[in-house]
Amino acid sequence: MIYPKLAFEGIRKNRRLYLPYILTCVGMVMMTYIVDYIRYSKTVAEMRGGSIIEEILVLGNGVIVFFSCLFLFYTNSFLMRRRKKEFGLYNILGMGKRNLSLIILCETATIAAISLVAGVFLGVVFSKLVELILINIIDLGINYSFDISFSAIRDTAIGFAIIFSLLLLNSIRQIRFSTAINLLKSENLGEKPPKANWFLGIAGVALLGAAYYLAVTITNPMAALVTFFFAVLMVIAGTYLVMISGSVMFCRLLQKFKGYYYKPNRFVSISSMAFRMKRNGAGLASICILATMVLVMISSTSSLYFGEESALAIRYPKEINAEIYTSGLEDLSDERFAPIKKIIDDAARGAGADISDAVYYREAAVVGAFINGSVEVNVANAAASVAASAVPYQFYFIPLEDYNRIYGTRDALSPGEAMVYYTRENLCLSEIKFNNGRDIKIVKTVDRFEVDGDAAASIVDSVVLIVPDLKEALGGLIELAAFNGDRLVVTEFVYGFNTGLEPEKQAEATQAVWSAIKDLDKEKYGIYSRTVSGREDSRTEFTELYGGLFFLGIMLSVIFIFAAVLIIYYKQLSEGYEDAARFGIMKKVGMTDRDIKKSINSQLLTVFFLPLGFAALHLLFAFPIIKRMLRLFNLVNVSLYGLITLICFAIFALAYTLVYRITSNVYYKIVSGGKD
Amino acid sequence: MSIMEVSGLRKVYSSRLGGNTVEALKNVNFSVEKGEFVAIMGESGSGKTTLLNILAALDRPTSGRVLLDGLDLSKIKDSLMAQFRRDNLGFVFQEFNLLDTFTLEDNIFLPLVLAGTPYREMEDRLRPIAARLGIPGLLKKYPYEVSGGQKQRAAVARAMITNPKIILADEPTGALDSRASDELLKLFAEVNALGQTILLVTHSVKAASVAKRVLFIKDGEVYHQLYRGEDGDEQFYRRISDSLKVMATGGREE
User: Fold this and answer.
1) N or C: which end of chain B has fewer CB within 10 A?
2) How far away is chain A from the Cα of B212, in angstroms, using its nearest Cα?
3) ipTM of the complex, rounded to two decimals
4) A222: how many CB neighbours lie within 10 A of its CB?
5) In chain A, where are the structural domains located?
6) Residues of B with CB below 8 A from A582's CB?
7) pTM of the predicted model, to two decimals?
């Protein structure tokens, strides 16, 4: 058969193009298999909270397959562009479109077969290793059995069969709709001078600016997620526009300054850059977006993972924390709590706990937002548009008596007065007016109050008001009810203590306390609901969630880095071919080898580090908004996140530079190999 | 006074393993006077491209030497070669060799910019040349926007703008239609009339017939030469083609 032979020869002769492509396919298949394998893995399924990991992985797998598809399309179009000349020649020599399609079919089948076999093989080899890493990340016992997951192979094969079929159809479509002459000349098409598209360039800059502005100024944490989503879309669009049009525009602008432009070191670089950016703007923007994604993902997931300890300490201020919600304000009294406290203490002691550092206080909580200077707690009263833009706060009312008891202070307050504690930002309020409630005068700002874990971890900032009397301070608020008839003001006892027990025992003690209070008679004790949480008890869940995210972050980063490296490689390759003739001419006209090298270097450097620079800029502006979102995951340690982001960036930049050095050698080889 | 002297030029190409050797140039001797317009003719394979590459210092001879204005090309260090070419030689190529990333104007400026010439001076130099070559309106255009003849005129402007000692033209009409060729050749004659030395390599009798002297190369040697004398273009054309006929049939002119 001639077709397989032609196909095989085609791949072999263009191995400089095909080898990285095949390697990438293999890599993608391998990653998909591994993620699939872990998803189906019994070891993972049997873990406590293995279901969280499984869910994360199903999502991750979707992202990987979708991304593989996009990415392989990108590289395949590049391959096709270079192969068209060959196909054009076959066409002229008498091969029909059908024959060409057959060659492409054989080629795609060959590549698909190699990728699947090698990818699954490597996947099987590395899957155990990756599983061990995952288990290690999540701190579990290790199971050394070795197995092959056929469900994973099936899923991977199906996924990639679809991708390769799509690639095949796309290639055939390209051949079908062009004539032999078009095919022959396709490589030289489109070398028109780049026009500076001022509109798009300026739009790109404006988009980026607006997205940055949004990211920096957004204060409403509820809106942060939606805003972040829009900001991300704007940044992506803006990056593409700026790289494609903005850069050409910038070069054109520089060319207008004759004195600046007509200098030996700038002349060639600036005018070539305009062309280079026109050709590579999209590729560079992709690299930039990928780099940003990798960095955001890896730095936030690793911050979560490494910040777990502090997150636990914040989320669970004491080793065991109980919150008992009372039916009403009248039930929120020390007398009512005494029997409940006894039950809790007995249960804890029964599990061996030595109760210490106990903190107990009463609390009334309500969510509200500042609208026209006063706090509205009833959402129904606020117009939807106003409510959406208003920043919500959690308001906690704490009796002065309890505050003085906890901290051993002797502060005194008159009715209508309060001391305030802000969990995060100091709002510098002197008075708070509650609609339907009363006006509270703030006489003092205190700098300590150990809020409960919910408040500490909440995405919403909290305002703690220490008041002389709860009933008097809440006023009419206590009467307000939500749609479902529940009171808007939540009243609860907050009780937490340390146990002096080993981690394992702590979890047991937590469970003991929970069993003791979960069936408390609601009527008898005047309670509405209750929760118990233990730091050690929750550690596994935290580790699994954060570990799972961290693991996924690593896997996706590896894939994105694959992609970025390949884009860079192909970019260098295609540029090398296109520039070889150009530098030949310059040599003839009297440019020295040194000049040429210098010019190439400065251009490559710019082209290379432009995406990295932009990625750094994106990261910088994303910082505030990501910081806010990490609060959702109890990560409030900003300096940790900052440090980890910096470390990730440094590592990434290093790897990037390495890739640059390797790929620019390929470029030099092609350029200097061109006839001079 | 001769501006270029070529003596005993020999160039041997050998295959990588040293087995086969091809003698592209055997023994070439000639000189070009200042202000002269010389055409070198020969069939493909006669060694004229090799000769031009050596004259342009793009390649080095196996033996023999080339003196440009008294300076031996083989004595120039490799690192200074590009600069030497830029300052002393002007090139016009068959394929124009304009950079598609530059406007025509910037293409013409290229050698001057590389030499560090200030913008004002480049402008002052370009204006008369562009006017003479009839391209002032095209300067802001890109190579892909203009015709072959216009591209070649821009290439001539680029060759002239450094005031080179000699312009080397390699088959400059090869990629042009007959009308554009005629115009270009007329231009060469005009430029030469202003005192510019030109060396033209071609196998077109038409192109050679505008020169003042024609050297014929065959099998790596200067085989014959013709002076225009008082002849007009057409008479010279006839004499050149007669010579070629004789060369082709193997005889030697009296």
Assistant:
1) C
2) 27
3) 0.75
4) 15
5) 1-189, 318-534
6) 99-101
7) 0.72
